[in-house]
Specification:
Elements lengths: L13 H10 L8 E2 L1 H8 L3 H13 L3 E5 L2 E4 L10 E6 L5 H16 L3 E6 L4 H13 L4 E4 L7 H10 L4 E4 L7 E4 L2 H19 L6 E6 L5 H17 L7 E6 L4 H14 L5 E5 L2 H13 L6 E7 L2 H7 L6 E6 L5 H13 L7 E3 L3 E3 L4 H4 L3 H5 L1
Parallel strand pairs: 4-5, 4-6, 6-7, 7-8, 8-14, 9-10, 9-11, 11-12, 12-13
Antiparallel strand pairs: 1-3, 2-3, 13-15
Helix pairs in contact: 1-2, 2-3, 4-12, 5-6, 7-8, 9-10
Length: 375
């Protein structure tokens, strides 16, 4: 449907109407478009678009930045450009809360209508939410659901409806992946665990315990593989060290129970613990504390969540570090990638976040405002 008002209105200046249509084609600051794309987005004939671009360039409102590339010198109009669907992982975990909050802020800043639903960490609800977003006819979906077995089902619903999909953290067939570089994040944590053991335990350990999330599938499992490789890279003498794999499901309570059960049969005196996330790491820590065996373990988390950062500040904690993913920054990048897809610009199949090791020594430097957030 054309944005051009009715031609019978005697007070309208058609050239200004056409100019506003053309300027609305530039949807982001710094965006450079060829004449063909300007004409397509504005709905104007190519010849008219060319004359308007030439005139607006002379007026300083448009700049020619290449042989056939134009850039607006004005701030983009704030308008509801697109409707994005967002299926959140859940509201029980701080990581997913921060992803959701950042995404909502970024969508509002870009004038994008965001239809948000909650998957509640439940595969059945994730499928129902996919059906709802398809019925809403959104332009693009950002999906954050954890179950690998449901991923093909959810992805197929969007594919059949011709809706582009960005999948956070868990790969979905045909979707652009956004999130952790799991193996790299695991290596960062594993190497630090190894260095700590080398320095404090004289390179000796009796057992390595990995708190995993099996239902999330192979890619998040690479996080655990990376931790194990990182430990043994620093401590090759632990090549044959016993490794226990526990299913903590990424949750505090399930990780607490899994570690409790394990400690009933384990007599290890020096235990290296790597967890899929901070929530699992803290559940394992609580189990060691309850058993009076906290001094027997050291624990590495992943995500550097607020709960994990708070624990790092505790004196004498056995939670020695966490690898940061910065979920508070996801929103800007997810919106950027979504707009790139919808504007048909090239996007890599996987967009990885940058990771950083957070320890007691640098947590206040990297996150100086945590104390303000707690007040």
């Amino acid at each position: 449907m054309s944005d051009e008002p009715r031609s019978r209105d005697p007070y309208l200046v058609k050239s200004i109407v056409h100019s506003s249509q053309l300027l609305r084609a530039f949807r982001a600051s710094g965006e450079a478009l060829p004449l063909r794309e300007v004409a397509k987005r504005s709905g104007l004939p190519k010849s008219m678009a060319f004359r308007l671009l030439y005139t607006l360039e002379k007026c300083g409102m448009v700049e020619k930045v290449g042989e056939n590339l134009y850039q607006s010198c004005l701030r983009p109009f704030k308008q509801k450009l697109f409707r994005f669907g967002y299926a959140a992982q859940g509201t029980d975990y701080q990581f997913s809360k921060e992803v959701s909050a950042g995404l909502q802020r970024s969508a509002a800043a870009e004038g994008i209508e965001l239809i948000s639903l909650d998957n509640q960490y439940n595969p059945k609800i994730a499928q129902r939410n996919a059906d709802l977003l398809v019925r809403e006819k959104v332009d693009l979906v950002i999906e954050f659901q954890t179950d690998e077995n449901v991923a093909p089902i959810v992805a197929e619903k969007y594919r059949a409806a011709n809706i582009p999909l960005i999948a956070i953290e868990i790969p979905h067939p045909g979707a652009t992946y956004y999130g952790a570089n799991n193996y790299e994040a695991g290596l960062i944590g594993g190497r630090y665990l190894g260095r700590w053991v080398k320095r404090r335990w004289e390179s000796e350990a009796d057992e390595i315990v990995l708190l995993e999330l099996p239902r999330a599938g192979n890619l998040p499992r690479m996080r655990m593989t990376g931790q194990l490789v990182g430990i043994k890279e620093v401590l090759p003498n632990l090549a044959n060290c016993h490794v226990s794999h526990l299913d903590g499901d990424g949750c505090f309570n399930k990780s607490l129970e899994a570690t409790r059960r394990h400690l009933r049969t384990s007599s290890s005196k020096r235990v290296i613990v790597g967890a899929i996330n901070d929530t699992s790491a803290l559940g394992a820590l609580r189990a060691f504390q309850e058993a009076g065996r906290a001094e027997c373990c050291i624990i590495m988390g992943q995500n550097a969540s607020p709960e994990g950062r708070a624990e790092l500040r505790e004196p004498n904690t056995r939670f020695i570090g966490s690898v940061a993913y910065f979920p508070e920054r996801y929103g800007d990048e997810l919106i950027r990638v979504g707009l790139e897809i919808l504007n048909r610009r090239p996007v890599p199949p996987a967009v990885f976040v940058k990771h950083q090791l957070i320890t007691r020594e640098n947590v206040d430097h990297v996150y100086p405002n945590d104390s303000l957030l707690q007040n």
